[in-house]
Amino acid sequence: MKTKVAILNEQSLDKNIILEAAEIIKRGGVVAFPTETVYGLGANALDEEAVKKIFIAKGRPQDNPLIIHVGDFNISPYVKEVPKVAKEIMNKFWPGPITLIFEKSDKVPMITSANLSTIGVRMPDNNIARELILAANTTIAAPSANISGRPSPTDVDSCIEDLSGKIDYILGGENSEVGLESTIVDCTVNPICILRPGAITLEMLKEIDENVYVDPAVLNKPTEDFKPKAPGMKYRHYAPKAPVKIVSGDIEKTIAKINEIVLNYIERGKRVGVIATDETKNSYNSDIVVSLGSRENLYEIGQNLFKVLRSFDTMDVDIILCEAFNEQGVGAAIMNRLKKSAGFDIIEA
Description:
Its EC number is 2.7.7.87. The protein is α/β, with parallel strands linked by helices. Helices cover about 30% and strands about 20% of the residues. The termini are far apart.
C-alpha cells in the first residue's frame, strides 16, 4: 500500500487536503492525523470493516476498546445518555484532552467498543483533527498512530516510521502539545471514576465531583483475565525496543542506585541509557543520558516522554533506566505511562 503524506499548517488549513483525507475516511480508509494529545489513527467509527483496518495496521488486540472522536458537542447519536456530571465536564474541558465513557448506542458497532456496552468519546482541541471529523461527517475511531505497544507518536515523523505502507494517508501538523493520551473518565458509574490519568488531573476533576477517584486497576499490574474498559488498561504499552526499569525513591538515593546499576551493566559490556531531568542529567556515569526537561515543569516532562522513549531505539542500548516522579497532578499520568512502558518493573532506591 502506498501511503500519501501531507503536511498542514494548523493556523491556515488547506481545505482541499482536509477534504481529500475526509473522502478516504468516507470510503472506509484509514488516516493518521494530529491531535493535542498524540497523533491518532482514524477510521469511520460506524463502519465495521474500516475499524478492522485500524486493528490490522496497528497489530492491536481486539479486546482493547477504541475512543471515538467528535467535532462538536452533539454526541447523542452515539450514546444512550449524557449524565449531568458529564455535561459539566464537557462544558469545562471540551475541546480538550479528556475522554468520557458512556453507555453506547446501537449505532456504534461492537468492534469499535471491543464488545463492551460502553464507548469513550472525545472532542480534540486541534484544528486539523476537528476539521477532518466535520468534513468526514461521521465520528472517527482513533487510537494512537503507532504500532501497538510502541511509544505513542507526538510528531508526524514517528507516524511515518511506524505506519508508512500500512495505511492510506498521513496528515501532518505540529508536534502534539500535551504529549500524553487523554484522561479517561467513566461517567457510567457514580461517583465518576478515572480509568486513565492525563493532563486533566484528578485534582481538576475534584472541582466538579469531589468524590471522583482513580480506578485501582490503573495503579496495579493487570491480570491476564482483566477486561479493559478503556484503552491502555491491560497491555504493555509505550515500550521502546530495550527493556525499561524505573528507579524510585529520594532523588539522591535514586541517582546513586542508577549509577550502581549502570556500573554493573557496563562491567558486563552492556550499553545503558538513562532517562533523567535537567536537574540530574550531569549526575550519571552513563554516556547515554537524555533529559525529559525540568522537574519543576511536569507538563514539559509529559510532552517529551514518548519522544524520548522512542529516541533510544536509535541508540543501540541494552537497557533503559528512568527516574520516577511524584504521582500528584500530571505526575500521575507520567508514572502511569512509565509503569506500562516498564511492564511495572520498579526498583526501590
